[in-house]
Amino acid sequence: MTDALLLVLLIVGGTTLLSIPLGRYMRWAMDPVTASRLTRWFQTIGGDAARTEQSWQRYLFAMLGFNVAMFVVVFAILSLQQVLPLNPDGMEALSPDLIFNTAASFTTNTNLQHYSGEASLSYFTQLGGLMWLQFVSAATGIAALTAMARGLAGHKMLGNFFVDVQRASFLVLLPVAVIVAVALVIGGVPMTLGGSVQATGLEGAAQTIARGPVAAFVAIKQLGTNGGGFFGPNSTHPFENPTFWTNALSMVSIILIPMACVWMFGRIVGRPKHAAVVFAVMLAFLCVKATGSIAFETAPTQAFASLPIVDAAGNLEGKELRFGAAGGPLWAVLTTSTSNGSVGAMHDSLNPLAGLMPMVGMWLNATFGGVGVGMINMFLYIIVAVFVAGMMVGRTPEYLGHRVEGREVKLAIMALAAHALFVLGGTALFAATSWGADTLNNTGPHGFSEMLYEFSSAAANNGSGFEGLGDNTVPWNIATGLIMLLARFIPIILPLAIVGSFVAKRRAAESAGTLGVEDATFGVMLVITIVVFGALTFFPAAALGPIAEHVLFM
Question: What is the dihedral angle through the alpha carbons of 542, 531, 327, 298, rounded to the nearest 10 degrees?
Answer without folding.
Answer: -60
